[in-house]
Amino acid sequence: MQSMTHKTAGQLSHKALLDNTKYDALEVAYGSTDSVGAQIREAIENYRDKIEELEFCVVMIIAKDPLLTNLKRRKFYCWPWLPAPRPNQAVFLYNKLQDRIKCRLWVLPCADSMAVLATPGFIVDPKYTTMQHWSRSFFKGTFWEDIRSQHKINMLSQEEYFISHREELLKSGVDISKPAVSEAFDFSKISANDVGNPLETAFA
To answer: Are the C-beta atoms of residues 43 and 78 closer than 8 Å to each other?
Structure first.
């Protein structure tokens, strides 16, 4: 007989469905620091011997569960290049020699919030100023330049990395024609006008 205190995934999913709260990468980053830190470290240990570069990116994304559509999962992986920016994504820079996360490169919220943040004249609480800068930078098409300038780094994006290492990648059998796992979100599908009330939904 099933324990009265144990809930199945389906029951938990149904409970979550009744919860109108919206979650994004910013909330997860602020609200689950200990858990996120442990998962970041696990990702680092899984990838550090596979990546030759002394510094690489640790990426966290908030993704939907393929079976329970209202359930969100955190996914972590590491790349030797700057991943394509997308909603619900946090990216950290790790240094092997120092064995530590040097900095948080960026955190992008859900797509609606990004659109609102990028709206000209939209005023936010000071703690969201940097996120507003990242969102506007994305829409202006200056994301890589701004990230490198902000953090004083020269790390390449995936596309730039592939161009720079094209010959060695082809010789090793890597198919560089396939789209990236973190292919950039198509923001032509959404604009600030799609959000009914920015003051209510910007950080919902």
So the answer is: yes
| Those residues with Cβ within 8 angstroms of residue 85's Cβ, 6 or more apart along the chain or in another chain | 106, 108, 134, 138, 143, 184, 185
CA–CA separation, 39 and 26 (whole Å):
16
Between vectors from CA 100 to CA 94 and to CA 105, what angle results, nearest 5°? Answer: 40
C-alpha to C-alpha distance for 192 and 198, rounded to whole angstroms: 8
Q: What is the largest CA-CA distance in the chain?
A: 61
Strand ranges for the chain from DSSP E: 55-64, 72-79, 89-95, 100-108
| b/e per residue 141-152 (b: at least 16 CB within 10 A) | eebbebbbeeee
Any idea where the domains of the chain sit in the sequence?
A: 20-177
pLDDT in tens, 21-78: 444 545 544 444 456 888 999 999 999 999 999 999 999 998 765 555 555 678 899 9
- Which residues, other chains included, contact 2 with Cβ-Cβ below 8 Å and sequence gap of 6+? 8
What pLDDT score does 23 carry? 42
Global pTM? 0.69
Instruction: Return left, alpha or beta for 8; rule: phi > 0 is left, psi -120 to 50 is alpha, else beta.
Output: beta
